[in-house]
Design a protein that fits this description.
The complex is a heterotrimer of chains A (about 575), B (about 350) and C (about 280). Chain A is built from 26 helices and 8 strands. With about 575 residues, chain A is mostly helical. In chain A, strands 1-2 form a two-stranded antiparallel sheet. A two-stranded antiparallel sheet of chain A has the order 3-4. Chain A has a two-stranded antiparallel ribbon with strand order 5-8. The radius of gyration of chain A is 26 Å and the shape is globular. The termini of chain A are close together. The C terminus of chain A is likely disordered. Chain B has about 350 residues and is mainly alpha-helical. Chain B has 14 helices and 4 strands. In chain B, the strands form 2 sheets. Chain B has a two-stranded antiparallel sheet. In chain B, strands 2-3 form a two-stranded antiparallel sheet. In chain C, strand 1 and strand 2 form a beta hairpin. Chain C has about 280 residues and is an alpha/beta fold. The two termini of chain C are about 40 Å apart. In chain C, helix 3 runs parallel beside helix 6 and helix 10 runs antiparallel to helix 11. Chain C has 11 helices and 10 strands. The chains are: A mainly alpha (about 575), B mainly alpha (about 350), C alpha/beta (about 280). Chains in contact: A-B, A-C, B-C. Chains A and B meet through helix 14, helix 15, helix 20, helix 21 and helix 24 of A and helix 2, helix 7, helix 12 and helix 14 of B.
Amino acid sequence: MTQRPFRLIDAIRWGVYGGIAVVLIALIGMVQAFSNKGIVADRVTMSQVLVFGLIAAVALMTSGRAAATKPRLIIPAGILAGGTVALFPALLALLITQVNLRSVLLNASPELADLLLPGNANDLVSALQLVALGGAFGFAVGALTRVPARVRRSLVSAGVGVILIGLLQAVFVVIIPDSWRQFLYKANGLSTNGAIALFIVLTVLDYAWLRGRPLTQQQIGRLSAGRRRVLRMVVTLIMLGILAVLPQLLGPFLSEVADIIGIYIIMGMGLNIVVGFAGLLDLGYVAFFAIGAYTMAVLTTPELPVVRNVIPQLNFWEALPFALLISFVSGVLLGIPVLKTRGDYLAIITLGFGEIIRLLVLSDAFKPILGGAQGITGVARPRVGDITVVNPQQFFYPILAGILIAWFITARLKISRLGRAWMAIREDEDVAAAMGINLVGYKLMAFATGATLAGLGGALFGSKLGSMVPASFNVLVSINVLALLIVGGMGSLPGVIVGAAALIGLPELLREFSEFRWWVYGIVLVAMMIFKPEGLWPEATRLRELHEFETPVPVETAEETETAAVPA
Amino acid sequence: MLARLRREFDITDVILYLIGVILMVSIAYGSYVTITSGKYTSAQWTNFVLFGLAQGGIYALIALGYTMVYGILGMINFAHGDFFMMGGFAAFFVAAALAQAGFLETNPFLSVALMMLGAMIVAATVAVLAERIAYRPLRRAPRLVPLITAIGVSYFLQYTARGLFGSGVKAFPNIPAFTGAWQVGTIAVQKSQVAVFVVTTILLVFLYFLIQRTKIGRAIRSVAEDKDAAALMGVDVDRTIAITFLIGGTMAGAAGVMYGIVFRQASFIMGFIPGLKAFTSAVLGGIGNITGAVLGGLTLGVVESIGPSLFLDGLGIPSPHQLKDGIAFTVLVLILIFRPTGILGERLAKRA
Amino acid sequence: MSQNHNHILLAHKVSKRFGGLQALTDLDIAVAFHAIHSVIGPNGAGKTTFFNCITGFYKPEEGEILFRGQPIQGMSPDRVAALGIARTYQNIRLFTNVTVLENVLVGMHRRLHTGWFGAVLRTPTTRREEKKAIKEAMELLRFVELADKADYIAKNLPYGEQRRLEIARALAGNPDLLLLDEPTAGMNPKETEDTMALIQRLREEMKITILLIEHDMRVVMNISDIITVLDFGKKIAEGDPLAIRTNPQVIEAYLGRGAAAGKDYGARTTAAVEG
């Protein structure tokens, strides 16, 4: 495949795509929502980062392409791309100051124009200023392409790092020492000096890390097997030690976030068996989460006289086995009709199941047993000795225990005969059957194990909240879990944790963001599938499987082909 | 005989049939009780059926997109319900603008035509763009990948609509020509339902000719049959797939207008449940089969409309209409148990 | 039926239709214990359909298939496999993204017993079983001369080795009957030679009965005890290689089709018939 040489029209084309993206972001309300979130206090807001981040991304990509075929066009390409992107928000701003579009587009307000355009007046001059600013930014990015690759990587990483540290102010102010905090942060964002210092430190650290990593890996590689094992145990112990004191480090607010992440990790582990190991796309996963939560609630609440007349009120520990058992049984019962059918129906049928469970819970027909739309309160909290586990810092521990159990189970299953059978089913059902693998049986096993783990997550969730409403169990929960799996890497256990931390933690920490989380998840799902289907922390097998369709070449030539096959 | 049963069935089949039989028996018992109790008059039943047909027409229009895409790509396009949603919004904004100008009252038929035009263009554009941007790069990926992508597209579209147009429900302006009912004997026939029925029929006939009699239709059929062979015969596969999405999107857009006329609302999540049901219709009729999608849609619409009163009420379930959405799903499970190929059988492309 | 005692597989009047297409018509085939039995015929004669009927992927409309005297038609593929029938595929179907060793271990599935609790708790029984499984898998890989590539990802093996791996995977289940669907397709003469030797060793050393679909007449004529010829889903001839080579109907079937569909088959068959 020969690459078409880069032309300036390509820069304009990508600039147009970027510009449309900026307009979309502005019109769905992200720019306005983020305008109050400071990254660098009083200087840079999150919405500016968003807009100029997109400009930078487009310029970086365009000049990168220019660098590959027409190096002399790098700078013009950067300027042109940046300017073209900026042209779109500028035109949008001018348009909404002239014409009232608000009857259709909710966010096309004069305030948006104010936010988009620099300066005080929303006129042609400030629009041109914005375009020029975009061009200048593109120029800077283009110039960056001239810098050696290693340094450039470190600079970009440091930039992203500064933004993240500014964004996650709520986390960092809790965990860093006071003196650092006073230097780094102001009320809303980083201090200017702090941001500059941070940028320099991060650049140096990243550069050193890039240099040092191969060396460290070499040294570890030279260790004997026994020593490596000791090293791994030491690392594990240190991590467990950190986990043990984490709630104290984090404080109540962040512990709450950690708890939610933790519950999603448990669910993610379960869905990982279903989707990642066995390749069954279950979109009704929330159903089992709801079943676990509701079993816990119904068995332990003092309300619901209809139930209390029949079943005595249980405590958390007595109810937990029932929650798991009922999740398991419903996994089997719901699994049988759907798992006997063709693979691709599964997704949509399970989607329907999730919806049905919610309908049943909401309905008047089941109100005496399940509480109807008002939900159930008075769900039991776990008691350990004399302590009732109530606050988020305490609740971290039962959740942590749940995660460790889920991790243990999935890790063991993965390397066993069952794990191999699931792999076979995922890769080729017919051949798996010809190996003597009972397809329905093994799919059911995956489905039911996943359901039980979801039930565990649900039981913990119900108990943690102390009360529940049907609204907590809509299909978006399933989508959350699926998205975190995909971002982390399907089939990968560390991936679940990475995915949960990113996709569940971030919206919890950034209230401004939570309104847009599913919009972003949508993009993330598509983008991951197209560009990085193996996820951020992939499992080795999955990496190979998903890149197969891109490079169907024998291994001897794979390397050279891969570099040559970069799409033009 | 028993040996044969033992050889060909296992315990999961037994459970499966048991579930199926229990469902069937409860349905039969519920219907029996309702009918013998005489709680509903025959005029009421007729109304249920008419409403069901109108609703089924909308399902059919959406189901066509599912079934055509499944036929040609072997993929469930989760985002299809959201193409319908986009069409619904387009129809709403056209209707709102026309209502403001007073055009809606003076020229109701032309107005609806304009709404159709707007909705079809928007939904078809969204469909084609989704195919081009999200699905085309993944033609040869493992089967899970396009499914997940489609879910991503679905959420992207839903929340784009939410961000652009707001999270509230938009109420369609009143179109006097389509409100009210004609009295036929004891039965009141809603004008909006008649309108939906007429428009749906016209579109379906048009589509039938498009698929059966034109060059584009032949190309679509040949790509559905065998992509590689079609490519060898000189059919532009990518273009044909894009056209399939275009047609599917157009139908979904029309469905959005119909939905607006019958239910008089648009919202960003309106695509989810109808999408699910349209998929059920497609499976019910035999996925990949265009006639089947229409038949499945109408059947499902009617079953869903009479179902809560017929079997749920008879079973003594309080406020049965809350569980209406559950019926479609029960139907889906029953088909999968007893006739997985649907009413008319599947017309599937060979899949590797 | 006295035949039961000396035949491992008996197909009796097996018919299979696809819509209007009659893929198999009243097919009778008897495979003797420890035989190498070949099924040949022009493309579309119904050979692979027959394999699919045996292994449970298709359910024949009529007729009976007995394995060791037990009817198996209509049984699900995994239960057929559990009885001791293994197969390979015309277009190799390995689990391409896992290691060579893992492929063989999956093939061993039916002989292992670890269940959910065994896997999670990793009981001594499980550990023993896994250890033994890996040891046996390595032995099998040595048998097909792939032991040094146990850690390779299956799709990175060259073509001929993928074929051998597929055979090893089929053998891992300790089958009594092995169905090989064109095991030498796409191989060079040297590889074909090796595969023939391998098939013969399967019978001699492992006491496995072999049912073989093959296009390469040299292979068929050299190693088969008995050959069944199919055309349009019907059996047109059966006998030892010598009888088949001189059977006018067989020549007619191949040459007649060869003239219409391309010279290739005709040429190959004629060469085989004459040689």
